[in-house]
């Protein structure tokens, strides 16, 4: 029986995004591309750092992983402790059919390009979970505003918080679409038919397409609801302004009469 090599991919997604250019000086041994920083720790394995705020550890022991995390925190002192984990096990086995078997990714041979694609997909999944929690919070906040409008028929006159909330929704929507690059197939996949199929199975295993669609719909719903609430608030402010103008005109008309009295 051919030897089987098992590999582990462990991803952590952070609240903050990374600037690979700013991180590069802290990792002189790393190879930098537009998509990632990639380097090998002294005791083996691989570490991938992505601009959307994710780190992936390939065959890195927990002890070494903690050391690399400390190194990252020294490079980014403002990094928060809020993280989202994701894991995947990969097995090299030339005598088995490539694909996902009981949650384990099986391929005939793990190349450098294939490892990069696997790490990217696991990182995207971890980051998606962070955005899902963020959007669920935004959805709940929007629900409170809509419930108030439903019960009282009115909203607060303050529009600045609504403007900021709308900006937050638009920014999150843009980040999910552009920074995560969920809709862009990696170039390495086009030249590797086996990995092309594996890449599709990985995305299916992590439900990336469906999760992205769900996020997009929720964010669009939040944005539309907030814009409606903003319109109501503006209309209410306009009515109050019109009432104030009418009162001023009435005061100007009444003042001369009061003086005559």
Characterization of the model:
The protein is an alpha+beta fold. Helices cover 57% and strands 16% of the residues. The protein has seven helices and eight strands, in the order E-H-E-E-E-E-H-E-E-E-H-H-H-H-H. An eight-stranded mixed sheet has the order 2-3-4-5-1-6-8-7, with helices on one face. The model has no long low-confidence stretch (mean pLDDT 83).
Broad shape = elongated
Q: Trace the largest sheet across and list its strands.
A: 2-3-4-5-1-6-8-7
The residue-averaged pLDDT reads 83
Share of β-strand residues: 15-25%
Distance between the termini: 112 Å
Q: Main β-sheet, in a few words?
A: 8 strands, mixed
**Tally of separate helices:** 7
Class from secondary-structure proportions: alpha+beta
Specify Rg, calculated over alpha carbons.
27 Å
Residues in helix, %: 55-70%
Please tally the β strands and state the result: 8
Order of helices and strands: EHEEEEHEEEHHHHH
**Which residues sit in consecutive blocks of at least 5 with pLDDT less than 50?**
none
Sum up the structure in keywords.
57% helix, 7 helices, 8 strands, elongated, single chain, 261 residues, eight-stranded mixed β-sheet, alpha+beta, 16% strand
Please give the structural blueprint:
Elements: E1 5-14, H1 20-23, E2 31-32, E3 37-39, E4 46-50, E5 54-58, H2 62-75, E6 83-92, E7 99-101, E8 104-107, H3 112-152, H4 160-179, H5 187-190, H6 193-205, H7 208-260
Parallel strand pairs: 6-8
Antiparallel strand pairs: 1-5, 1-6, 2-3, 3-4, 4-5, 7-8
Helix pairs in contact: 3-6, 3-7, 4-7
Short description:
Helix content is 57%, strand content 16%. With 261 residues, it is an alpha+beta fold. It has an eight-stranded mixed sheet with strand order 2-3-4-5-1-6-8-7, covered by helices on one side.
């Amino acid at each position: 029986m051919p030897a089987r090599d098992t590999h582990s991919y462990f991803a952590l997604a952070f609240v903050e995004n990374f600037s690979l250019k700013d991180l590069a000086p802290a990792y002189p041994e790393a190879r930098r591309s537009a998509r990632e920083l990639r380097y090998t720790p002294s005791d083996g394995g691989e570490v991938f750092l992505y601009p959307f705020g994710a780190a992936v550890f390939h065959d890195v022991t927990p002890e070494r992983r903690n050391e690399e995390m400390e190194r990252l925190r020294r490079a980014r002192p403002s990094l928060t402790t809020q993280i989202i984990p994701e894991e995947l096990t990969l097995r090299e086995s030339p005598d088995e059919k490539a694909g996902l078997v009981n949650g384990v990714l099986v391929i005939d041979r793990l190349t450098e390009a294939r490892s990069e694609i696997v790490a990217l997909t696991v990182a995207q999944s971890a980051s998606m979970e962070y955005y899902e929690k963020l959007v669920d919070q935004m959805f709940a906040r929007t629900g409170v505003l809509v419930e108030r409008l439903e019960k009282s028929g009115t909203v607060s006159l303050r529009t600045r918080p609504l403007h900021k909330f709308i900006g937050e929704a638009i920014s999150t929507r843009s980040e999910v679409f552009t920074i995560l690059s969920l809709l862009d197939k990696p170039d390495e996949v086009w030249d590797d038919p086996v990995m092309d199929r594996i890449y599709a199975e990985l995305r299916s295993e992590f439900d990336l397409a469906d999760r992205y669609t769900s996020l997009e719909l929720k964010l669009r719903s939040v944005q539309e609801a907030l814009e409606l609430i903003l319109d109501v608030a503006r209309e209410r402010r306009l009515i109050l302004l019109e009432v104030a103008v009418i009162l001023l005109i009435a005061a100007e008309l009444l003042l001369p009469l009061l003086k005559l009295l």
